[in-house]
Amino acid sequence: MLGGGAPHTPGGRGRGEELYLGAAPPEPPHQSMEAPMVDYRGREAREHDTHWYSIARHMLGLRHGLAGARRWRQVWSDHKLKHLSAREVSKIANTRPDG
């Protein structure tokens, strides 16, 4: 069943379309969704005083199964970073720990 594994395989649908339909795969979800969500978090913070971590928790499965996903989740879940903007936390989450 192809659809059953979709939530656990980011970008898996695109690979199937590429193999069976000859279509170019779409951009991986973690790349196409993170930037708009960071912008959304910033707007919510300015307009409604919503903290980014209230929104980030809904995005924690975005990189499931990808290299670096655990660290990315840990950064977005780190309450010590609450004082930073969502854009700053995104930068930290997307920076490799070794440099």
Report the major sheet: none
Mean pLDDT across residues: 78
- The backbone outline, from C-alpha atoms, is globular
Class by helix and strand content?
A: mainly alpha
End-to-end Cα distance = 40 Å
Low-confidence segments, given as residue ranges, are none
Structural summary, described in words:
This protein is an all-alpha fold. It has a domain at 28-93. It is built from five helices and no strands. The protein has helices at residues 12-21, 29-48, 52-56, 69-77, 86-93.
Considering the chains and any ligands shown, give keywords for the structure.
99 residues, mainly alpha, 53% helix, globular
Describe the protein's topology.
Blueprint: H1 12-21, H2 29-48, H3 52-56, H4 69-77, H5 86-93
Helix pairs in contact: 4-5
Summarize the structure.
Helices cover 53% and strands 0% of the residues. The protein is mainly alpha-helical.
